[in-house]
Design goal:
The chain is α+β, with helices and mostly antiparallel strands and 250 residues long. Helix content is 43%, strand content 13%. It contains six helices and nine strands; from the N terminus they run βββαββαββββαααα. It has a five-stranded antiparallel beta sheet with strand order 1-2-3-5-4, with helices on one face. Strands 6-9 form a two-stranded antiparallel ribbon. α2 runs parallel beside α4 and α5 packs antiparallel against α6.
């Protein structure tokens, strides 16, 4: 049994060809969601395998590499941004008709409930083989919401929509951020435009900050407190610069 890196919210371990973690009230809903998505032909998500004898959630291990921070330089290639947008679109489309009576979600649902959002579709949950994006993991915080809500989270990490000084992302001129945000939205499609993402990004970051602060208080993990501070600064940056970033060329 091997403890996997990451898992800042819930510790995960690998046992053979499976990944296991402590369950929550949302576990059965997430397992049903994964079944639903895979039944619609999207095998880029883990295969759900129920629970083990200890009651832990079990999913199949997706082979490949999940990169931690600092990220490799090639993560910032346009090709990765386009591939991420395309995979997120496919994931969202596969969840449109997901319905489970009595569904339980770890995070609150957001209106309009267009899709089931992953809510952490970011490099630290993306699986690569070489430089090819082949999967996404960690659906623990999935919940219904608008497409642009999930795109805002992805844009935060991959455009990036981060304040100067955030150590997880490279220094990026605003003009380049605007170009990459337009590229992300264009690759995703379905009429989502940069202004839609920027309108939700500060609220999305505020929610992420609050969630992180709560978890930091519950666990006493000082590094999570630092992350919460970065998210607060990132939200303020987007509030100030959002109108400019909505334009594809500055």
């Amino acid at each position: 049994m091997d403890r996997l890196s990451g898992g800042n919210v819930t510790a995960v371990v690998r046992v053979g060809d499976t990944v296991r973690r402590a369950p929550g009230p949302w576990t059965d809903t997430v397992q049903a969601l994964l079944h639903h998505v895979r039944a619609r032909g999207l095998d880029a998500v883990p295969e759900p395998r129920g629970r083990d004898a200890e009651g832990r959630e079990v999913v199949a291990f997706l082979s490949g590499d999940v990169h931690g921070y600092p990220l490799p330089a090639w993560i910032w290639d346009d090709a990765v941004l386009v591939a991420a947008a395309s995979l997120l679109r496919r994931l969202h489309d596969a969840t449109v008709d997901f319905a489970r009576p009595g569904a339980s979600w770890r995070l609150p649902a957001r209106e309009p409930r267009e899709v089931v959002c992953h809510n952490d579709f970011a490099p630290h949950n993306l699986v690569f083989r070489g430089r090819e994006l082949c999967g996404v993991i960690d659906f623990d915080t999935a919940a219904p919401g608008p497409r642009a809500w999930d795109l805002a989270n992805t844009a935060h990490r991959l455009v990036p929509l981060t304040a100067p000084g955030n150590p997880d992302t490279p220094a990026t001129p605003d003009g380049e951020r605007a170009r990459r945000l337009a590229l992300l939205c264009g690759a995703y499609g379905t009429g989502v435009v940069p202004a839609d993402v920027l309108a939700l990004a500060p609220e999305r970051l505020d929610a992420l900050r609050a969630f992180t602060e709560d978890h930091a208080a519950a666990t006493g993990a000082p590094e999570l407190g630092r992350h919460a501070g970065w998210y607060a600064a990132d939200a303020e940056y987007v509030r100030r610069r959002g109108p400019a970033l909505a334009r594809p060329w500055l």
